[in-house]
Amino acid sequence: MEQMLSLLIPGLVVTAIFLGGLLIGRRLVKVPPAPDELIGDARIDAQRILARAEEDARTLAETYRDREDATLEHRRVEIDTKDATLEQREATLEQRAANLAQREELLIDSERAAKEVALEAARSQEDARLELEALAGFDSRAAKEDLLEKVEDEARRDAMVLVRDVETRAREEASRRSRRILATVIQRVASEVVSETTTSVVPLPSDDMKGRIIGRDGRNIRTFESVAGVDLIVDDTPESVSVSTFDPVRREVARLALTRLVEDGRIHPTSIEEAYEKAKDEVEQSIKDSGEWAMLEVGLTRIHPELVTLLGRLKYRSSYGQNVLNHLVESAHIGGMLAAELGIDEVEVKRAAFLHDIGKAVSHEVGGSHALIGAEIARRFGEDAAIVHAIEAHHNEVEPRTLTAVLVQAADAVSAARPGARREALDSYVRRLERLETIAMEFDGVERAFALQAGREVRVIVDPGTLDDMASKSLARSIAKRLEQDLQYPGQIEVTVIREYRAKDYAR
Fold first, then answer.
1. Are 385 and 308 within 8 A, CB to CB?
2. Whole-structure pTM value
């Protein structure tokens, strides 16, 4: 406040002097008084103005002082009120702290008392247990172990019953759905049953033709074998000559050339070369036509020309008596129908099934599994990764990771396992049945085992005194898993465990 007055008073003085000077100037203009009078009047006016300014300043200063005093008093009252409130809160907090400390002491006492009661109860329980053991003459640990063993047996039995029920329902549902899908697909397949042979036999009009084929000093037969790259078997078989080679295409070329030579009757080195060239051109055209026919039959496009040629070569390749090209076409149809039933990409499955045995076209020339060879060929000619994986996994050389690969395996198995599709040697057939029975007999409790339905079912008869019903169920599952690990077979093998208990007596 004092600083404000010190700044205000000099300003008022300057203002008064300015006003006094202005008044003197006006008077000088109106009546030019004497200089002494003017100075005296100006001094009087300046003193009057200064006195009025001091009075106004003093009044204003007092007003400001009263207002500040009132404000300070109001703030002092507020501070006093807040101090009282803080003191009250502090007293309340102290009271709460005291209450909490009291409660903590009560809780500690209660906990101590509870521990003592618990220890006393434990001692009483131990004394009662010892007294009961003394009266019963039986150890509690042995009783506990016996009880746990009984509970474990009951739990295991209940678990086996539950597993049996769940597996039965799942197997029934899966079997029902799979049979419906496979039955629908197989019913839609209309394929002829044709048994292919790997032996090429050329009929002769008479046995005299064998002499012409051999020629003077064996000249003709040596020329033919050198040009065609095959072996001619001229044995005691009447009116026929056999063509032998591992290359099916070369064998077909040699068969056609020899047939033409026999029909013409003129057999000499020049005619052999001419007949071979014509037969070679004819077989190459047949290979191309067969590959294109297979593509049209399956309904696929955008296949590399080299793959089409390899597919055509499979016309002259057979597997267990089944023509490989016909097998691919049939597998493609089956795979497409399986995909349609399951609601997935039909074209992709068709393409993978159609190309899954492409490696057999060169498997006699390149070492390794035909599945891996076919996958490498498909990869080289720009097939998708899913198609390549399905090809390399269709015989489990690679673990199948996609549904397409699994469907290709199923289509391959259905095409190969249908009646009449393939023939199997008697020795391998008997060995497979013996292997099925041997694996089943290796398990404990098995008395006899029989392979039925051409190896599609194994019936196992067990000792009823060694195995109960639950153990028989577990045995069937164990035998099935062992067959999956040790054998390779198309389709599935049903394992049936028979447990029969017979009680008999004689009346005398």
1. no
2. 0.48
